[in-house]
Specification:
There is one protein chain. This protein folds into two domains: 6-257, TIM Barrel (Alpha-Beta Barrel); 267-351, Immunoglobulins (Immunoglobulin-like). By secondary structure, the protein is an alpha+beta fold. 21% of the residues lie in helices and 37% in strands. The protein has nine helices and 20 strands. It has helices at residues 26-36, 50-53, 96-105, 146-151, 157-165, 167-170, 176-188, 216-219, 237-249, and strands at 6-12, 40-46, 58-60, 63-71, 78-81, 109-112, 140-145, 192-196, 202-206, 209-213, 223-229, 253-257, 267-271, 276-278, 282-283, 289-305, 308-322, 326-336, 339-346, 349-351. The strands form two sheets. The protein has an 18-stranded mixed beta sheet that branches. It has a two-stranded antiparallel sheet with strand order 9-10.
């Protein structure tokens, strides 16, 4: 994939009042998405496709709403899209391959949600990790979940208060174990990495007050999944939904935390004199090639090959010559209040 690319930013994995643990209507969620400047949102109510049934899927003004499902037994939560009927499991279903296969049998696809979630003992939030890595047939994996990241900071009451009032500053990025596993999985086949918010606007009682984790006006400005497409949206519901699906399936994706700075304008390409490919692409190496990274503003750019850092520079551009095959991706950090904080994570380019 080369040439002009269209960049659309969206939010994946959140719940409406169709879910047993949601409390915000579709209309209010869409209003928040519009205010946040999102291009698309991917709703995943628990075991339900009511939003699709009731006609909410499609363009809502300038926001494209896509209705999927979160298949959510005790462990191994799975985000299912492009399915006709909801898939229901037992609470303690312990064979996720069954529902992965059920999604695929409907010509759908799925993404492993919050794979390394640990919860928080202080507030009795149970862990909901993915525990069966023998599965196959899934399309992607969440590499950065705001709930996983944020809840890990709730170790004491002082840290909780700090984290509640400054949530974005407290985020530390994807977990090392998640990135390592993702890099390893991609050595066998493409496994797309996405970002998720897993938002419920959940009400929690703390020190005699009600707190909401998180309101949609805030969370829609945090971890976003960007897709790169060769054709622009044309306001046709089915065609544009399929454009989103194909970009995710093909790994034409990067993830960004955009509370402080928008990531649009980011690009990552590998090429030589004859050919150039972008995120999600495959490049045949014939001698040497050059990595090109562009940012909308200055940041700390890290080039990662097969899970290991091979180059680092602080700039708004990066040019780096390579002569080794492998899986290349980019991490970017930007300076916030004097400290470098995680900003952008690309999917891989496979150099063969």
């Amino acid at each position: 994939m080369s040439g002009i690319l269209y960049d659309y930013g969206g939010a994946i994995h959140f719940h409406s009042d169709y879910s047993y643990d949601g409390n915000v209507s579709i209309d209010k969620i869409v209003k928040s998405a519009k205010a946040a400047g999102l291009d698309f949102i991917m709703l995943t109510d628990h075991f339900r496709l009511d939003a699709k049934r009731d006609g909410h899927e499609g363009w809502q003004g300038n926001v494209l709403l896509i209705a999927g499902e979160e298949i959510s037994p005790r462990y191994n939560h799975y985000l299912a899209f492009n399915i006709r009927e909801p898939i229901i499991t037992r609470r303690h279903e312990d064979k996720p391959q069954r529902y992965i296969d059920m999604v695929n049998s409907q010509n759908g696809f799925g993404i492993i949600a919050h794979p390394d979630h640990e919860g928080t003992k202080l507030f009795k939030v149970k862990p909901f990790p993915w525990i069966d890595w023998s599965v196959e047939g899934y399309t992607g994996i969440s590499i950065w979940d705001i709930q996983t990241d944020w809840q890990e900071k709730l170790k004491s009451y002082p840290s909780t208060i700090l984290s509640y009032f400054f949530p974005s500053y407290r985020l530390s990025g994807p977990k090392d174990i998640t990135l390592k596993r993702w890099d390893e999985l991609n050595k066998a086949r493409r496994v797309t990495g996405i970002g998720e918010i897993d938002n419920h606007n959940a009400k929690k009682r703390f020190l005699g007050f009600n707190f909401y984790i998180f309101n949609f006006n805030y969370v829609f400005r945090t971890i976003r999944t960007h897709i790169l497409t060769e054709t622009p949206f044309n306001k046709n519901d089915r065609e544009d939904i399929n454009t989103v699906y194909q970009a995710i399936k093909n790994g034409r994706v990067y993830i960004a935390h955009e509370y402080w700075n928008n990531a649009k304008g980011f690009s990552f390409n590998i090429g030589d004199d004859g050919r150039e490919v972008s995120i999600g692409g495959e490049f045949i190496l014939k001698g040497r090639a050059k990595i090109k990274v562009n940012l909308p503003q200055r940041g700390l750019i890290r080039i990662i090959r097969d899970g290991e850092k091979v180059y680092e520079i602080t700039d708004s551009k990066c040019y780096f010559e390579i002569n080794d095959r492998g899986l290349y991706r980019v991490e970017v950090y930007h300076r916030v209040l004097g400290r470098y904080k995680p900003w952008i994570y690309s999917n891989h380019i496979n150099v063969r």
